[in-house]
Design goal:
The chain has 95 residues and is mostly helical. The chain has one domain (7-94). Helices cover 46% and strands 4% of the residues. It is built from 5 helices and 2 strands, in the order H-E-H-H-E-H-H. The radius of gyration is 13 Å and the shape is globular.
Length: 95
């Protein structure tokens, strides 16, 4: 059974200067196109928030429990993913 990643864990991971496999694992419950959109929106605010860095860390998993691959993120970029307005609202509230 996988343990849930807390908000504190996620912030620690996203603000870390170096990602290590000893950090908490992050499981995303959204589609890859939505995740790519979120990463693009947040990348300027966090260290190491690139598809390649996410894959290399070995910390990030898809909603199907598979290790997140950079190529999946690179190939799933679209301008308007499902629930875009909801994602934008959440990101704007974080600022």
């Amino acid at each position: 059974m996988r343990s849930k990643c807390s908000t504190d864990h996620l912030v620690t991971i996203l603000t870390s200067k170096a990602l290590t496999t000893k950090m908490h694992k992050v499981y995303f419950g959204c589609e890859t196109v939505q995740l790519r959109y979120i990463i693009d929106k947040l990348s300027a605010s966090f260290n190491n928030l690139t598809p390649t860095a996410l894959e290399k860390s070995g910390l990030f998993y898809t909603k199907t429990n598979k290790l997140l691959k950079a190529q999946n993120l690179y190939s799933n970029k679209i301008e308007s993913p499902k629930n875009q307005s909801t994602i934008d609202n959440i990101i704007n509230q974080m600022k």
